[in-house]
Amino acid sequence: MDGERSGLAQQPGLSNFGHLLLCYRRAAGLTQEELAQAAGVSARAVRNLERGHARAAQRRQAEVLADALRLIGDERQGFLTAAADGRRRANRPEPTANVALCAPPMAVPDFVGREAELAQLTSWARGAAESPGGTTVSIVGPGGIGKTSLAVAALHRLAPGFPDGCLAVDLRGMDERPVPAGTALNRMLRALGLPEGQLPAALEEQSSVFRSMLRGRRVLVLLDNAAEEVQVRPLLATAAGCHTLITCRHSLSGLEGVRWMWLDPLPTGACVELLSSIADPARVQADLGAAAELAQLCGNLPLAVRIVGNRLARQSQWSVAQVTAQLRDEHTRLTSLTAGDLQVRPAFTVSYDRLSTPAQRLFRHLALVPGTDFGLESAAAAAGTPQAETQLHLEELIDTTLLQLAPTPGRYQFHDLIRIFARERLEAEEDSPQRLADDMYAYVIKTATEAARLHHIDSTASAAAREKAAAWLEHEASAWVAAARYAADTGWHRELIDLIRALHWFSDTHQQFPWTELFTRAMGAARALGDRHDEAALLNFLAWAHYLLNEDRPRAVATAQQALAIAEDIGDKLEEAWALLYMSRALMYMARPEEALAPNIRATALFAELNYGQITGARNTQGRILRMLGRHDEALAAHRAALADLETWDDQMTPDLLQYYRGVSLMFVAEVLFEMKDWPAAAATFQSARSHLSTDDQPHVAGEAALYEGVARRHCQEHAEAVACLREALTLFSEAATPAWCERTLTELAATLTAKGDLEEAAECRRAAAALAIERGRPGPAL
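RE: above sequence
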């Protein structure tokens, strides 16, 4: 029988049997008097059982009540089992008034945002009945994240499933003197009804009596704010049917048979909801944008949000935007997060004070690491300790929740407010924090420059070394970007220029970083040093960023012209060639092929004169310009010359880059053949291009090759092959998240399937293409 049938959940104070009796009687549509008459018992007996005044029904009494209620099968058996369980409980000594010693705390009235965690805790608690040794869950997280609030909410939600009571003890694990295990056991034993005169003296005996008294009962225990395993282990409710909840700031990883729940900060929406429930909801709703920023400035930490909410509630004249503005200053943020006895900084201080001395030092020094997360190598560099030693102390910080594991394996990150706290400790406890900061930034710049040089096009490093360098640059991007900005602001001109110039080829394949800003800052450094060679090179980098990344082609032309003027003036032919090439590409993208051709021809000639491998890129650009001008034969010749150049210049390129250039050059040849409607040659060349293009690294380019090949094969009446190509293109465009190209591919696939005679599938493709068009609000790209 469940609450759904009766429409009732079990009410506090009712025994399991009394609750079942009430639910079944109401489901049968009987009054207490009618049930009593049908069962041959007194109405008073029915009332006492339902209200919990009588915890037990005698066996015969339970049987006649089951007969009167017409219970059969599992429902009858469950009803009789509940009666027998009640009789067993009735024979035990009831808890005395000392139950107040371990009374559960009141639930937080404005508790929000942890429904998923509550659902998981509820699921785990259900296993207590089947587990011979009870069940235990440890809720772990840094100070202020809401461990106790969640545990108390779970306690109240789970209580009906533990009819023999709930015991809660604050172990004060972060105090200088946490509650001893013996003291906590004393309280719980007295709450369970053991007379004080019968309490054993020895801890081991107390724990044994505790487990004995729990045997046959269903009890829920909360051990809040635990310090360490030795404190908690004797207090675990390791009896069948019992369940223990622990909250702590470190994992207590030495405990056996425990499930762990690591708490993350609240979602921003839940933080805004919490803020609204504490302060005036109308004020919060009036500026949801500021409220969301406020939550993020609080690090989405419930304690910090509650403090801010209390301040807003107390200062009715303040707006959410005003409080948000106060918190933007990192130097005063922790001080601002104070309201009465609610403070964020002490929540971190107690955890910090419990660290070993080397871990405290590492914690402080990790505040020096720029970027959002970091690896072991950077942590060791910040601390100036060997990596093996650093690893041990990182694990201590993780265990005490002052540091978090980042989503990327092997990397670490701070909670935003804890990072600020670490910086405060650094400034308060280290003699020369600025020198330490300079040393860390210098380390990041030096390491990034070395890695970028290994990744350079003309690097002679092994493939493994190049891959390792690229991985470091990708993982530590937030660090070297921050270090580059620091160098620019500090006047480290040469270091900044060397870093950004080394990163030139990395930028080609990793276009997501703020290259325009970085190139501009480095160009300013070159001008400050009066180095015109570097200035010309960095202006060329900027021209590339403007035409390709920012799609600001007029600005790209103007920037390339500046680079060209400097290069011609100082006789730097290589930068002159690059300036002409970038100028021609920008003009090509502006659909001005007549103007683009002349600088391209000059660039190609200069690259040939310098015996420089990038002549391949110049020839391919020339072919594209000639194709725009309708000079297809000349375009084909240019692209085929580019392919021939690759055989000459292959020693200047890595194998991966060589493969990529071959694939792209073949793509250009195939596109010209496509425009010339030479369908067999176009299809074969697109197929060859696909064999050189990586579907992992260039899914979009490979997708275009598959799409065009499919269309060319449809024109050749090779419908089965065309369908296979188009399906491959659709997969690649989906992986590259390009809905416009997905729509175009679906349209082509529908046309090909129609020609093939698969009309039903063709109709499905047309419907999918139409849905994408509606979603995007515009048609896909034309072939």
